[in-house]
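User: quick one, sequence for these tokens?
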């Protein structure tokens, strides 16, 4: 007999930060239908209001711990911090899009903001997933609007090509996730992560043949989420999609999708499968695999970025490389003694990377012309003489992406390297340090063009809009504040203890 959920088991209050955004998106969808054409300019501001309300609720409920939807949704500081990262990224992306859509004569297409709210909702649910079924549903909610947004600049052929490539490969990757979930369910008899935790421990202890199903399931899930975070060798879609998609979509995709997908990966591996430790090993079976993927991702991303002359393709390979640094922290979390530290390091990196990368893309949007040109590295020549403030901020963002001290990027890399070393992944940390030096070359190459080479850096718009200027300012302040006051991010992640929390939950139930 099917047991109907009660209001107490649904516990909507715990899930309100994510539900509020979904409700806001649905209401805005209805409002948009009845708004007269002359009032369509209100849609982006209403979308921004919905994101800010959800952000405020997430901050207020930061330390709340509880479950909703009969244990399929979990709220804790990990969930709240992922919400904050994703919602800040969404808010800044809305500001970027308001300027971009106006300049490209697409401001009447208000469905852009509706799609952005729905994909953001998917990211929030991925961070709060306490069940593999929720991970899959949230991943689809994240992905489908992004497929549409990637081709939003139709009839531009590159944009349409980006959408098609992203859709085909994304659907293929979703299949891997479904099969991985099926394997784990077959081994443990449940899709609930606390149940997977307990089932995995029993399988490993008894050396049951179901162990092979578990290993296969983990491998398939890593392939699927590896595609979403653009880890090597699942990165092939990234450069073409980043180049072809509208630049605000690329900016949001580079940080929001990573945050949601890494949150789901951490939930599944660190919460559900930390006890998957083979005989004679001290770390989870998936840790070494992720360490190898991290090394390959950092090496390929940084070295291929050296050859790129298009700024969006360069930042695409840079994004691949940064996924490698975050994977380093996830691999470190496979060591039970370093589990929480690895999770904290990954979240700190995602937070600092969000401000820095969105700031860099905001400068790219400022230089991009209305027809989509202006995205080559040579278009930055002479920018310092024409727009000294923009050049200074771009320099700051490039130094932060490199990991120079007194920037947010340095703090992110510091915590990631520290977690890797504490987990005994010294060689991986060395690879990360060496590839960071390689990255410095192609980031500083932009600075050289702005300050030391003459040219006519034609700005895409004669005057920065207030919304684009506000986005650049907020991104710059975030990059500066977290770089100069690193204790802020340390304090923010202090309560993120998902390894200990799930052990208590599983042990109690």
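Assistant:
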């Amino acid at each position: 007999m099917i047991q109907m959920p009660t209001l107490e088991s649904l516990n909507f209050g715990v899930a309100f930060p994510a539900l509020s955004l979904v409700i806001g998106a649905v209401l805005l969808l209805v409002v948009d239908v009845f708004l007269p054409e002359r009032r369509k300019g209100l849609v982006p501001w209403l979308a921004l209001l919905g994101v800010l309300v959800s952000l405020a609720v997430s901050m207020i409920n930061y330390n709340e711990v509880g479950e909703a939807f009969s244990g399929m949704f979990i709220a804790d500081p990990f969930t709240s911090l992922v919400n904050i990262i994703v919602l800040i990224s969404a808010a800044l992306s809305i500001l970027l899009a308001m300027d971009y859509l106006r300049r490209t004569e697409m401001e009447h297409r208000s469905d852009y903001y509706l799609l952005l709210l729905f994909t953001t909702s998917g990211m929030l649910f991925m961070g709060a997933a306490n069940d593999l079924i929720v991970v899959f549903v949230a991943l689809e909610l994240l992905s489908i609007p992004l497929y549409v947004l990637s081709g939003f600049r139709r009839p531009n052929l590159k944009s349409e090509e980006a959408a098609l490539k992203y859709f085909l490969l994304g659907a293929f990757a979703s299949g891997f996730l479904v099969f991985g979930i099926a394997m784990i369910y077959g081994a443990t008899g449940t899709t609930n992560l606390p149940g997977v935790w307990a089932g995995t421990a029993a399988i490993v202890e008894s050396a049951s043949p179901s162990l092979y199903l578990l290993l296969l399931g983990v491998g398939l899930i890593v392939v699927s989420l590896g595609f979403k975070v653009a880890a090597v060798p699942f990165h092939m879609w990234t450069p073409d999609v980043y180049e072809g998609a509208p630049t605000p979509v690329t900016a949001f995709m580079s940080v929001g999708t990573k945050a949601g997908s890494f949150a789901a990966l951490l939930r599944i591996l660190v919460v559900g499968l930390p006890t998957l430790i083979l005989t004679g090993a001290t770390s989870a079976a998936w840790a070494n695999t992720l360490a190898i993927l991290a090394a390959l991702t950092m090496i390929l991303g940084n070295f291929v970025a050296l050859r790129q002359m298009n700024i969006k393709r360069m930042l695409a390979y840079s994004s691949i490389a940064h996924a490698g640094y975050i994977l380093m922290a996830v691999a470190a979390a496979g060591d039970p003694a370093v589990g929480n530290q690895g999770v904290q390091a990954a979240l700190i990196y995602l937070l600092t990377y969000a401000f820095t990368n969105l700031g860099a893309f905001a400068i790219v949007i400022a230089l991009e012309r209305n027809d989509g040109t202006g995205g080559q590295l040579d278009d930055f020549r002479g920018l310092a003489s024409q727009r000294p403030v923009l050049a200074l901020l771009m320099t700051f963002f490039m130094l932060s992406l490199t990991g120079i001290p007194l920037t947010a990027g340095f703090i992110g890399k510091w915590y990631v390297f520290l977690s890797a070393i504490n987990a005994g992944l010294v060689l991986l940390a060395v690879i990360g340090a060496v590839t960071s030096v390689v990255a410095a070359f192609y980031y500083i190459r932009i600075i050289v063009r702005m300050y030391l080479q003459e040219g006519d850096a034609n700005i895409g718009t004669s005057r920065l809009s207030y919304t684009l200027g506000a986005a650049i300012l907020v991104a710059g302040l975030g990059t500066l504040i977290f770089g100069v006051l690193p204790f802020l991010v340390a304090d923010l992640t202090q309560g993120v203890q998902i390894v200990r929390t799930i052990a208590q939950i599983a042990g109690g139930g």
